[in-house]
Amino acid sequence: MKVSKEKAAENRAAIVKAAGRLFRERGFDKVGVAEITKAAGLTHGGFYGHFASKDALAAEACEAAFAESLGRLPDDEASPEGALDAFLTRYLSERHRDRPDAGCPMAAFAGEVARQDPAVQKRFGIGVERFFEAVEERLPERGGEGDAGRRDRAIAIVSALVGGMALARATAPTDPDLSVEILTALRGQLGVMGGDED
């Protein structure tokens, strides 16, 4: 039976969403096509009607994961603590630490993306650049800093977020107190770094 264009698009989106969740949770190489299609509620046989390869899916799932993560940023604008502080609080939370499947693709993929297909690497790089720009837009200007200085600060903040989340996740199973200490220290330090003055 022929599937309508709408249903085909719905099935493709379900595969991308399931792949993004599973790739963030377990890594690109630890998840197979059959598992992804099953998680999407579909059969394995239809996969290649949507994607030429697992690498093609990984690239699209990476892009979609960044769009999902960046899509949360406007919610921070309405926070009384301010957009940047709300973002830092949300990012450096125990909830985010414990839910990599629904979290930031940078923290989930950074350690393995260099070994992936060039299309995945390219989408990852574009997503990272978009995060730098989003954080830079939320930074207040400091006297005499200039655009280059503000961009440098955004890069440092994003890099610390990703590295800090990786360390918090790695230490949580055996030393949960250290994991929480990492998150707490980064929230404080990056809040200062993102503020108006040194």
From TrEMBL:
Residues 9-69 form the HTH tetR-type domain. SUPFAM superfamilies: Homeodomain-like (SSF46689), Tetracyclin repressor-like, C-terminal domain (SSF48498). Keywords: DNA-binding, Plasmid, Transcription, Transcription regulation. It comes from the Bacteria. Residues 32-51 bind DNA. The keyword Transport does not apply. The keyword DNA-binding applies. Pfam families: TetR_C_13_2 (PF21993), TetR_N (PF00440). PROSITE patterns: HTH_TETR_2. One of its GO terms (molecular function) is DNA binding. PANTHER family: TRANSCRIPTIONAL REGULATORY PROTEIN. This is TetR/AcrR family transcriptional regulator. It comes from Azospirillum brasilense.
